[in-house]
Task: inverse folding
């Protein structure tokens, strides 16, 4: 093993006490003879030696050799090391990139189990394990860089573990009752006028009563936080003066991202995150984390050496077939974690359990989940990752959401994940977008999406709530931009328009971008009401994106991953404008309507069969002429579809075992550019109908409340949704 004195600026390492191989990471406790200290344990399967390096406040480094090796885990106990101590690892071994061996003890490595991280990545040349600027770029990754990276990289922090989580306040909202709200901790709070300036952009800001008040007014049941694991900024962004705003570039899976902490980065971020979760739980809101376990911030073979690459490159990453110098890339980010390997699978599941048991979170949305479900090459729904999750007594009880695709061959897996999992349903997104912009060839697909996507999920015991319905997400246009732009406007990203999808399925309503045309603006607001109403009346689990209810715009940028500025931050002043305030009020009203009516949040798929003495089918479909849909009608071009939901055909029981019944509703969706009239269906469906919602109206603060007799032709405004409550049938003879 090379000694620290073999490198410039090194000091002779001392030897740690033996310690324990369990648990992995740095854990402070009482050691032999009651001596307080910290145990360090690191899996480094094929390494030849490991040093744990401690740093004082002046940046001076003290190295300690770990001599104990148990089941490929290097470990040792350092007496006197207390919470707040900064540390990292230097790992020794062969340098032979041609075989995938990339050990370089000149590079200080972040502990993958670090529970807090202090400092940021600047990514100068010294941070790369190879000579980044080698004249022959195609060979640069094969030449080892001997310069010390310690001054340029963040350090792990030993954390006090005494603040244990109490599990008695979790909302535990059932899936059918859930309404998700995707938000960015920094972007949601950065410009909120009710949050004190020092707390904006932080976990404490999201826990502030002003932030909680908006969430509770909307009525959402869970926040889905964009990545809060410690992440790094990519070199190409830093060179352009930009930053990774979204955070899909993880490097520490146990550490809350330090940049979102108002209280400090020497372990204080852990307590602040826990207090945020407790505050959200106190408001009845679950916390779901968007997690990135498919790749890391170390990128491809020309990327920096920050953690796993220097610990055991071949043990943690998938190598390309026949060329272990390079990486298999199913993620588009340069590398893919090798989840089939036990140590990688353990890292992921240990991290997940930590966030549930010790940080209090309620579930996870897995970025590019298909990459995690790959066995050796192909996506496999019996893969080790899915099998471990299915039997884990902690993880199988929390909410599990898959982004069911990656960029590799066979990576599109919508509808294929097993029971326990829900999925982002992009088929729903595309269909609803196409319907309201007048681009659907017929309404077959719309019928499936409105009723829970049984064509995708009615197998293996899966239920309608397997479908997370969404129209927008962080990736793509905001809802306002969806009706304001027909092409992306990503010049601020500095990538010459190469980034971001060109398949936006958007319609600008007659003018590209911002306009003063009153008619265009009115149509856009109507389209927003149509989209939100469709989403919140559909069977499945709706997901809103923070700010869509306010009319947030990214000025046409459909890939704002690097825009940590007012392009991405929520503009709360929009609530001062009557039109946007009304949109927010409509969103809250739709959420309340959904919560009040179990027929809108069914636990089972529709059967299409008659139920009860009335002989009503649980769902019925009507054309724009008011007639029941025939097989031919489903295939015919059409911009109108009506859905009757029977409140007497709900196949579920309440807590006392009694049948659940509800009002029945008729929902008419009309995407046509011209107004019309819709004949209301008579018995056995209803005798009368009360108009509950008409999205053609700007002011939705007062429900219309108009009652129509069956058979009446109700006015059907252009591009609008009508929701009508069906009145009871009259008893014969009365």
Result:
């Amino acid at each position: 093993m090379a000694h620290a004195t073999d490198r410039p600026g090194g000091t002779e390492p001392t030897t740690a006490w033996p310690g324990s191989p369990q648990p992995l990471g740095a854990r402070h406790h009482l050691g032999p003879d009651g001596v307080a200290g910290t145990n360090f344990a690191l899996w480094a399967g094929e390494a030849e030696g490991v040093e744990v390096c401690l740093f004082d406040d002046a940046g001076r480094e003290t190295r300690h050799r770990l001599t104990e090796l148990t089941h490929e885990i290097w470990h040792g106990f350092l007496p006197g090391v207390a919470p707040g101590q900064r540390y990292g690892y230097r790992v020794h071994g062969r340098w032979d990139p041609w075989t995938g061996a990339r050990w370089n003890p000149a590079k200080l490595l972040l502990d993958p189990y670090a529970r807090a991280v202090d400092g940021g990545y600047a990514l100068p040349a010294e941070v790369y394990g190879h000579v980044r600027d080698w004249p022959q770029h195609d060979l640069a990754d094969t030449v080892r860089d001997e310069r010390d990276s310690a001054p340029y990289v963040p350090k792990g922090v030993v954390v006090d573990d005494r603040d244990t989580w109490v599990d008695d306040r979790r909302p535990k909202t059932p899936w059918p009752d859930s309404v998700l709200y995707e938000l960015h901790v920094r972007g949601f709070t950065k410009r909120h006028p009710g949050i004190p300036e020092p707390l904006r952009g932080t976990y404490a800001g999201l826990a502030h009563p002003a932030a909680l008040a908006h969430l509770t007014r909307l009525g959402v049941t869970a926040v889905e936080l964009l990545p809060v694991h410690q992440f790094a900024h990519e070199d190409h962004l830093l060179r352009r003066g930009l930053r990774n705003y979204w955070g899909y570039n993880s490097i520490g899976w146990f550490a809350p991202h330090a940049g979102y902490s108002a209280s400090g980065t020497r372990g204080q971020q852990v307590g602040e995150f826990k207090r945020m979760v407790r505050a959200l739980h106190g408001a009845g809101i679950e916390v779901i984390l968007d997690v990135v376990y498919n790749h890391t911030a170390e990128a491809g073979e020309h990327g920096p050496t920050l953690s796993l690459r220097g610990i055991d490159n071949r043990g943690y990453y998938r190598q390309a077939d026949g060329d272990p110098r390079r990486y298999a890339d199913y993620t588009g980010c340069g590398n893919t974690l090798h989840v089939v390997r036990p140590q990688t699978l353990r890292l992921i599941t240990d991290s997940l359990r930590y966030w549930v048991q010790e940080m209090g979170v309620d579930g996870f949305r897995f970025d590019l989940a298909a990459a995690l479900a790959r066995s050796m090459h192909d996506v496999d729904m019996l893969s080790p990752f899915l099998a471990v999750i299915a039997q884990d007594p902690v993880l199988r009880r929390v909410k599990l959401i898959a982004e069911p695709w990656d960029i590799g061959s066979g990576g599109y897996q919508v509808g294929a994940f097993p029971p326990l999992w829900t999925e982002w349903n992009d088929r729903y997104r595309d269909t609803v977008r196409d319907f309201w912009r007048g681009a659907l060839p017929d309404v077959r697909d719309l019928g499936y999406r409105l009723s829970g996507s049984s064509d995708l999920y009615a197998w293996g015991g899966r239920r309608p709530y397997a479908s997370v319905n969404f129209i927008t997400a962080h990736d793509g246009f905001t809802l306002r931009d969806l009706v304001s732009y027909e092409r992306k406007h990503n010049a601020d990203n500095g990538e010459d328009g190469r980034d971001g999808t060109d398949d936006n399925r958007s319609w600008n309503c007659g003018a590209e971008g911002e306009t003063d045309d009153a008619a265009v603006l009115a149509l856009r607001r109507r389209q927003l009401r149509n989209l939100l109403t469709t989403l919140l009346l559909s069977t499945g689990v709706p997901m809103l994106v923070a700010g869509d209810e306010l009319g947030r715009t990214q000025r046409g940028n459909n890939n704002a991953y690097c825009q940590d500025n007012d392009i991405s931050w929520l503009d709360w002043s929009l609530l001062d404008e009557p039109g946007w305030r009304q949109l927010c009020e409509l969103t809250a009203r739709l959420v309340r309507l959904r919560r009040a009516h179990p027929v809108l949040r069914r636990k089972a798929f529709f059967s299409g069969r008659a139920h009860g003495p009335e002989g009503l089918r649980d769902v019925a479909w009507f054309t724009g002429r008011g007639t029941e849909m025939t097989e031919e009608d489903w295939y015919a071009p059409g911009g109108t579809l009506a859905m009757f939901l029977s409140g007497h055909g709900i196949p579920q029981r309440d807590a006392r075992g009694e049948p659940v019944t509800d009002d029945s509703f008729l929902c008419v969706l009309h995407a046509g550019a011209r107004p019309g009239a819709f004949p209301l269906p008579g018995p056995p469906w209803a005798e009368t109908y009360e108009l509950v919602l008409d999205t053609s109206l700007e002011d939705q603060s007062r429900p219309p409340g108009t009652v129509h007799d069956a058979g009446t032709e109700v006015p059907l405004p252009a591009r609008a949704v009508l929701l009508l409550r069906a009145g009871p049938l009259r008893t014969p003879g009365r």
Remarks:
- Residues 607-727 form a domain with the Immunoglobulin-like fold (CATH 2.60.40.1180).
